[in-house]
Design a protein that fits this description.
Strand content: over 45%
Helix content: under 10%
Number of helices: 0
CATH architecture: 7 Propeller
Number of domains: 1
Shape: globular
Order of helices and strands: EEEEEEEEEEEEEEE
Strand order of the largest sheet: 5-6-7-8
Structural class: mainly beta
CATH topology: Methylamine Dehydrogenase, Chain H
Largest sheet: 4 strands, antiparallel
CATH superfamily: Peptidase/esterase 'gauge' domain
Radius of gyration: 21 Å
Distance between the termini: 54 Å
Length: about 180
């Protein structure tokens, strides 16, 4: 069975204004359409066929890719190597673990979401470990992380309320104070 590696691709087409298109004062209409192309670089795979990148910082790229077992796991790509960041432990062996990395900071800390067969959990990958960030209280405690700054503050969302009245709330996770 052939495997298609995950690729990071960018394409950009610049289109000039036509003679009758409105322009800013002092701006003359451009001539012919110009096109710029980018190199497409395959990032590799975690043993499966699909995946996507979601953020990059300082030569490192994060996202999620399919494993050889058909699960999707968060990855960190650095120096030409894709590393599986794993997922939270599953409460039942028949459930599969899934995770997705959403963002990385300058220090290499990665945030995203991991599924445990029930509600999703916002997570932090740092120093080769995964940390469950928790959620707002409610009958369906589910959360996700979308961004992290270099101070370790994490932003995302969490569901809150009874299962019949769930709402998503923007949340900020502040790192613990260091003595």
């Amino acid at each position: 069975m052939s495997r298609t590696p995950l690729c990071l691709a960018f394409a950009l087409t610049l289109t000039a204004c036509s003679d009758d298109a409105p322009t800013s004062p002092g701006m003359a209409p451009a001539g012919a359409t110009a096109a710029a192309t980018y190199n497409v670089i395959p990032l590799g795979a975690l043993g499966g066929t699909g995946g996507e990148a979601s953020d990059m910082e300082g030569g490192r790229i994060v996202g999620h890719a399919e494993t050889g077992e058909g699960e999707f796991h968060a990855f960190l790509w650095e120096n030409g190597v894709m590393r599986d960041l794993g997922a939270l432990p599953q409460p039942q062996p028949e459930l599969y673990g899934a995770s997705r990395a959403a963002a990385i900071n300058d220090l290499g800390a990665v945030v995203g979401v991991s599924s445990t067969g029930g509600p999703d959990h916002a997570v932090l990958w740092q120093a080769a470990s995964i940390t469950d960030l928790g959620a707002l209280p409610g009958s369906q405690p589910s959360s996700y992380a979308d961004g992290i700054n270099d101070s370790g503050q994490i932003v995302g969302g969490s569901f809150y309320g009874a299962s019949s009245d769930l709402g998503t709330h923007a949340v900020l996770w502040n790192p613990p104070a260091t003595p």
